[in-house]
């Protein structure tokens, strides 16, 4: 069972490229969660954490380019939220490598909650700005 299933009604921002990237980001989270719950090899989970971090950086970069290009007033706040997420994943990776497996359940929930709220609130807000400026 997926930790965080995609739901168009809740998560779609009605921009195909962004929606596809959000689906991909959620897919990384679900795959990581499955690996944790199935007790996959330590090296596999470390690689998945790196993949999640790398993909998040890629996706956030696209969002931030759009926000800057169209003078989104909350750009800096949005960017800070992105940075927080990346730092959190890096901290998770460090804790996991140090053998602190008890952090994974709590951390998986926090990652899911962050992605959920970020898409529903922060991302939909900047997309409204883009739409109001005739971008999409």
Automatic annotation (TrEMBL):
Recorded hits in SUPFAM superfamilies, A to Z, give: Hemerythrin-like
Q: List the Pfam families hit by this protein, alphabetically.
A: Hemerythrin
Give the record's keywords alphabetically: Iron, Metal-binding
Q: Which Gene3D superfamilies match?
A: Hemerythrin-like (1.20.120.50)
Keyword Metal-binding found: yes
Task: Report domain Hemerythrin-like positions.
Answer: 15-128
What Gene Ontology molecular-function terms does this entry list?
metal ion binding
Instruction: Report the CDD domains cross-referenced here.
Output: Hemerythrin
Keyword flag Metal-binding: yes
Q: Which InterPro entries does this chain map to?
A: Haemerythrin_Fe_BS, Hemerythrin, Hemerythrin-like, Hemerythrin-like_sf, Hemerythrin_metal-bd
Q: Which PANTHER family match?
A: BACTERIOHEMERYTHRIN
Q: Which NCBIfam families match?
A: bact_hemeryth (NF033749), hemeryth_dom (TIGR02481)
Family the UniProt entry places it in: Belongs to the hemerythrin family.
Protein's name in the database: Hemerythrin-like domain-containing protein
